Every structure is written in structure tokens, then in C-alpha cells.
TrEMBL record:
This protein's name: Histidine kinase
Gene Ontology cellular-component terms listed: plasma membrane
Domain DUF438: 9-73
Stored Pfam families: DUF438, Hemerythrin, PAS_10
Gene3D superfamilies: nmb1532 protein domain like (1.20.120.520)
Transmembrane segments: none
InterPro entries: DUF438, Hemerythrin-like
Source organism per UniProt: Dubosiella newyorkensis
Hemerythrin-like domain span: 89-202
Length: 383
């Protein structure tokens, strides 16, 4: 940095001495064309800190345009920020910008008291679930691993409250302006917390390979409001290098034998999604063809508790403890979604000696069956 500062001071001195601007500008380009605008700005700050008048440092702005190809320093700075910012963080920032636009548009609709427009814009906000999902499943587990739990747990809980309140307003069609405004304020507050707390923490504590792992899982969640999202070339290369290719090995089972490739293909066509949690509460395996829940690959080999919102962690812990103590060996629950009923079963697994070896989660959507039964009701001839 010292060399850059000296070079900049030398150019200021040449301008002060009346040297031709174009000559100094060419030297500036030659010297700094491979240097980040961030470094140039830092060097200029050092000049000011060492006593160079601000007015004199400002004369360097006449040189910047040649280096920045006609762009303003702020424009180049923003472009460099996008390159320096991890891909996932930039996606989340772009989604936040889109969210703020929609909040502003909804505020305008509230002022005009247009019910149909309000409902339409509220429905559009349901895409926020994709944004929160990426944040919760692709960033927070890494922060948990780094020992940073507080901010993540609080945000996850608030995210759930925001989404539940949004669903409630849409379900009841109670478009009370004060209720909606309070919800929008919470959304804006969450944007602030992400930008000022969560994202900086993630950038500080996540490693380069962590960002590559998250890139491979982004498609699992999708994008909120973004179209024509650019690919990350380094991430694409990483995905190719880590693509799974079944080995040509045979697996002997109690009732026959399958190749690994055959077994993988069978899993893809089962009408049920499986997740296996081992005896140490680590997530070891899943299938997710039904995509009832998001299942990022980065969750593998982590504690299963890191995959759940804070309010559910004690529930999961208690269930697994009862399985280990053999106080219970099965838990079944239904998610009462009228459009997509879902059955979830947790089955404790024990070896032939009765020792606990893990838990199998089985998730099945009955949306298809519900639609078939509905068609029977409307047209008995379908039977």
C-alpha cells in the first residue's frame, strides 16, 4: 500500500507543478490498471491521513476516468463489490432489493385502498419463503458450526412469524391496512438485519469452499423474483468436479442383490422421501424427489438440529431421546395443508441386539391422491 500511496502523491505533485494532464493520466493508467478501485481509495485515504489536503487528492479524480473507461468511481466500486461479494450473498442482496420495491408498491396500493391489487401483491410476497430458505439452510448452519447461534436463531424465528402472518392474511382475506403495514415493517427490519448483521457475519466466518457448497444447493430453493440469474463459473466447475457417479459395486441385501446404480435409480422413483439420522444425531442420507421440504446437500453430516428452526429443536431432541431410551419407536404427524396434505413418519431403527442405530424420516405428499379422489367425487364414472 505504501508504494501506491507514494505513486499517487507523485502524480499530485506533477499536477501541482503544471505538468500536462494527459501525460500524468497515461502514467496513472499504466501504474494502476491492474489495481482494484478499493486499493486506490485506501491509498487516497492514507494520503489524507498523512496530511495531504483533501482538495489536492480530489485532483486525482481527473485521472480516474481514464482508468475506469468512462464509468464513475462509484459505478466501478459497485461492480467490484459484486465480484468480491460471495455469490450467495449477492443473490440474497438482489432479492432484498426486489423485496423493497414490492413493499413500496404495496404501500402505494394500501394508500389507494385497492383490495384486488393488495391481494395480488401480497401473493407475490410469498416468494419470500425462497429467500428465507436460502438464508436459513445455506448460511445459518455454517454460523452454528462457528459457534455463532444467537443472531441466526432469532432471525429464523422471526422469519417463520413473518411467513405465518402473511399466510394468515391471505387465508382470511383480512386486508387490514394496519396489520399489513406492521408486517411490511417487519420485513424491512429483517432486510436491515440481514444486510448489517447476518451477511457480514457470514462473510467473516465462511470459507471459500463453503460458498462453493452453497452454490451447488441454491437451485434446491429457487430464486425470489430474480430472472436471468448469472451463473458462477467457479461454482459450476466445483459442481462438475464433485458430481456424484455411482460406482460399479454390488450390494447384498436380505432378499437379493442390487448394483449401487440400480439402488440410486430405485430411490428416485419411490413415492416417498427418506432421511436417515444416525445414532449421533447427524444427518447421513436423504432422498428428495418429492421436494416437500428443501434438502440441501450441505446439510449432510451435520447435526439434524441445525436443519430446524429454533422452536422445533427441543421437540426433535425430545423425540430422539425417547427413541434412544426405547420409550417410543414411532411418531406420525400430518401437515394439514388442504391443497397438499403431507404425512411425516419418524421411525426409530435398532440393530438385531436392540441397540439404537438411528432414525428414519419418511415424508409423503398426498396431493396426487387428493386430486384423484376429488375427480371421483365430481365424476363417479372415473371409478
Amino acid at each position: 500500500m505504501e508504494d501506491k500511496t507514494k505513486a499517487l502523491y507523485s502524480m499530485i505533485k506533477r499536477l501541482q507543478d503544471g505538468e500536462d494532464l494527459q501525460a500524468v493520466r497515461q502514467d496513472f493508467v499504466d501504474r494502476f490498471q491492474s489495481v482494484s478501485v478499493h486499493d486506490i481509495i485506501d491509498a487516497e485515504k492514507q494520503l489524507i491521513a498523512k496530511g495531504t489536503a483533501v482538495q489536492e487528492v480530489q485532483r486525482l479524480c481527473d485521472l480516474h476516468s481514464a482508468l475506469f473507461h468512462g464509468k464513475t468511481e462509484a459505478e466501478v466500486y459497485r461492480e467490484e463489490e459484486r465480484v468480491r461479494t460471495p455469490y450467495l450473498i449477492q443473490i440474497l442482496k438482489d432479492e432484498n432489493l426486489e423485496l423493497l420495491k414490492r413493499i413500496k408498491a404495496l404501500n402505494n396500493a394500501l394508500e389507494l385502498d385497492k383490495s384486488e391489487e393488495i391481494e395480488k401483491k401480497l401473493l407475490d410476497l410469498k416468494q419470500l419463503k425462497k429467500h428465507y430458505g436460502k438464508k436459513e439452510e445455506l448460511i445459518m448452519p455454517y454460523l452454528y458450526a462457528a459457534g455463532i447461534e444467537g443472531p441466526s436463531q432469532v432471525m429464523w424465528g422471526v422469519d417463520d412469524e413473518i411467513l405465518k402472518e402473511l399466510s394468515k392474511i391471505l387465508r382470511t382475506k383480512a386486508f387490514d391496512p394496519h396489520t399489513i403495514q406492521a408486517l411490511l415493517d417487519r420485513m424491512k427490519e429483517m432486510v436491515f438485519k440481514e444486510e448489517k448483521i447476518l451477511f457480514p457475519l457470514a462473510i467473516d466466518h465462511m470459507k471459500p469452499e463453503d460458498w462453493l457448497e452453497t452454490y451447488a444447493d441454491i437451485q434446491e430453493f429457487g430464486y425470489a423474483w430474480l430472472e436471468d440469474v448469472p451463473v458462477w463459473e467457479q461454482g459450476e466447475e466445483w459442481k462438475k468436479e464433485h458430481a456424484y457417479t455411482p460406482e460399479s459395486i454390488k450390494i447384498s441385501l436380505p432378499n437379493g442383490e442390487l448394483s449401487l446404480l440400480q439402488l440410486v435409480e430405485i430411490f428416485q422413483y419411490l413415492p416417498i422421501d427418506l432421511t436417515f439420522i444416525d445414532e449421533n444425531d447427524q444427518l447421513r442420507f436423504f432422498t428428495n424427489e418429492g421436494k416437500v421440504f428443501s434438502r440441501p446437500h450441505s446439510a449432510l453430516n451435520r447435526k439434524v438440529f441445525d436443519c430446524h428452526p429454533p422452536q422445533l429443536i427441543p421437540v426433535v431432541q425430545d423425540m430422539l431421546e425417547t427413541f434412544k431410551a426405547k420409550k417410543n419407536d414411532r411418531v406420525e404427524r400430518w401437515i394439514p395443508n388442504p391443497e397438499r396434505p403431507v404425512k411425516v413418519v419418524y421411525q426409530a431403527l435398532y440393530d438385531h441386539q436392540g441397540c439404537y442405530i438411528g432414525t428414519l424420516e419418511m415424508v409423503q405428499s398426498f396431493e396426487h391422491e387428493k386430486n384423484i379422489l376429488r375427480s371421483f367425487q365430481t365424476d363417479p364414472k372415473e371409478l
